[in-house]
């Protein structure tokens, strides 16, 4: 059968599990692991004091819902933020005065 220009392209369904970011308790997995580690260190490493229980409770009751809201808006927000930390805050619009001058190469090589 010959392909014609007006033939509709084939459509293949893709399962959402292959395209969606996996979330644990509504937040990205690395954040939940960090959160659980931090709370367990606070409670069992530092000790069960009123202040550590209050800080762990605040973290679980405030920071986790904020992470869930951010993940609902964009599931890859944590990855994008961590990647943005590697870049400089600003870049110079022009080179410095003491920057080395690069040689100019001709676009068309001459014999």
Helix fraction by DSSP (H/I, runs of at least 4):
40-55%
Radius of gyration: 26 Å
In terms of DSSP E residues, the strand content is under 5%
* Secondary-structure class: mainly alpha
Cα distance spanning the termini: 53 Å
The mean pLDDT is: 85
Report the major sheet: 2 strands, antiparallel
Shape by Cα distribution: flat
* Total count of helical runs of at least 4 residues: 3
Spatial arrangement of strands, main beta sheet: 1-2
Unreliable residue runs = none
Q: How many beta-strand segments? A: 2
Topology:
Elements: E1 23-24, E2 27-28, H1 29-46, H2 50-73, H3 77-84
Helix pairs in contact: 1-2
How would you describe the overall organization of this protein?
The protein is mainly α and 111 residues long. The chain has a domain at 23-83. The chain is built from three helices and two strands; from the N terminus they run E-E-H-H-H. Helix 1 runs antiparallel to helix 2 (50-73). The mean pLDDT is 85.
Spell out the key features of this protein:
two-stranded antiparallel sheet, mainly alpha, 45% helix, 3 helices, 2 strands, 111 residues
Describe the structure concisely.
With 111 residues, the protein is mainly alpha-helical.
